[in-house]
Protein: Rod shape-determining protein RodA
Organism: marine metagenome
Amino acid sequence: VLYSASDGDETVVRRQAVVMVVGILAMFIVSQINVHVFRSWALSMYGAGLALLALVLFIGVEAGGARSWIDLPGIPSFQPSEIMKIVVPLMIAWYLGSRPLPPRFKHLFWSALMILIPAALIVIQNDTGTAIMVVMSGLFVVLLAGIRWRVVITGFFALLLASPAWYLFLAPDHIKGRILTVFNPYRDPTGAGYNIIQSQIAIGSGGVYGKGYGNGAQSHLDFIPESNTDFILAVLAEEFGLLGILFLICLYLFILLRGSYIAYSAKDMFSRLLAGSITLTFFIYVFVNMAMVSGLLPVIGLPLPLISRGGTAIVTFFVCFGLLMSIQTHGRLKEP
């Protein structure tokens, strides 16, 4: 799919193959390490992650409208914000897992602070989508820790009430445009609504069986922007149809169910919180991308996991899988 979405660019495919190999090796290495070793490294990893996010503000390289990359001589460029999707839940799981549950207010306060600081640094880099996922990855740990429902409901309504004020006074114009586009993409068919319109045309033209591999007109005639990253699902739908999408969803559901089982089977709270957060974050990633490409959610620049072209994002997904494998192997044992 990536080869077709990249219009036959072998360079993109070769680079992706290298990234996949690196990711698989990282997954294997992480899976062999006792997950409780990562628990002991949580604070150090969190501090290092914040330092990298701060470093991006000074030496970061811009790509795709976001200044979130570090490109130093002698090492491959990487995106610290993607790494925080692992580090933040690791940190929150370490913090809450060693304290009485359900968490008290002061523990919730410090957890929120540990989530919002890296998220704010990522927002400054103009990468709202990744910032949202970092917040979600930490929030899932808090929810799984047994936070009281009245706190959840209160927070939800507070967020709901604050949304109009945020939209009117704080949201940038391009974010407002993306939100309005969800309700009517044809209000700006050559601007904010262009991506969604072309994506919906591609998905609809694929039908049930698709047009066949390499025969997607929308992608090969360059109507779909970011066809090998954020909108690769539209290419897949046009070429393989509804059946291809359903097959991909089944694969994702298998990962979701397997991760849920590992989280449920974990014998200690740290492993359970971490595995649950990893699994739910992966699910949200898939859901948001599919909803975004379908026009059900605003475009926030999230790739389709393991399918879209990427570097740091793909490696971090494999590292997360390695952590799940480590939890399956070591998380059932008594903590050292």
